[in-house]
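Task: complex structure prediction.
Instruction: return structure tokens for all chains below.
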Amino acid sequence: MEYILQPWPWYVSGPIIALIMFTLLYFGRTFGMSSNLRTLCSIGGAGKHVGFFDFDWKSQRWNLVVVLGAIIGGFIAHQFLSNPIDINLSEGTITDLTALGFDNAGKSLLPPELFSWEAVFSIKGLAILVIGGFLVGFGTRYAGGCTSGHAITGLSSLQLPSLIAVIGFFIGGLIMINFIYPILF
Amino acid sequence: MGKYIKFLAVGIFFGIVLVKSEAVSWYRIFEMFKFQSFHMYGIIGTAVITGIVLLLLSKQLKVKTINGNYLKVPLKEKGLVRYVAGGIIFGLGWALCGACPGPMYILVGTGVFSILIVILAALLGTFTYGVLKDKLPH
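Output:
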């Protein structure tokens, strides 16, 4: 039990994620979390106006159930399977974050500087979450997949388009963290 | 209803692993893009290596799905622009708010309700892509 309550090392977590991908393939489905965003748009009636959302979303109900499970899993892990323990960030990261004005780095899952209600109700804080979410939602459909669909499933099946997409993910991420964040904070 | 139970179980397992591995943490994503820790690379790397082995083995052993078909991964369409441009746009957003789609849902379960704003914005982004799809180079 002690091992479960501690943070799980990468060499345990990575293979389990691969097993999750494989299990969904075994069930005749595929591992892709961002597809649910399209499905939710369809459920909201977007198919009446835009052809891209005019599909049989009911065939995707299984994936929404995976999302529901993921939310429950997040609740279980956070409430019952975690000792209150700081994230073991590298010294360099803590130093860099402190310089940007992020105090208490790693004391919680997400930085209060971005996700506390106080931050959310500031113009800058709200803009960061809205623009970030928008780019994720737009980019993932444009690229035809996200971390689960391209980085895990696509690379595991040795697909070139997924490798290109994942390189793109990292170009975007590196630009944001190394060049844009220092301007924002 | 019964046929959905297994998907619920997979989802629960997925949520637990991503929280316990700290992959849902904004801090870990920041650290990854700074190349200051092996943690996230270790997770993605071992996931991909395990995935490659599982898929090669299942091909060799002619593993069938529960539907009776040979297990196979759907192929991504050929293309370049969409993967480069879409990939970079996704990466910018991923790093900005520290969450990709899986963690967005999972974080709701951990009680961080401000992530709902990110999810709503992601829905708007996906909707916008749907509107512009035919005008974009792919």
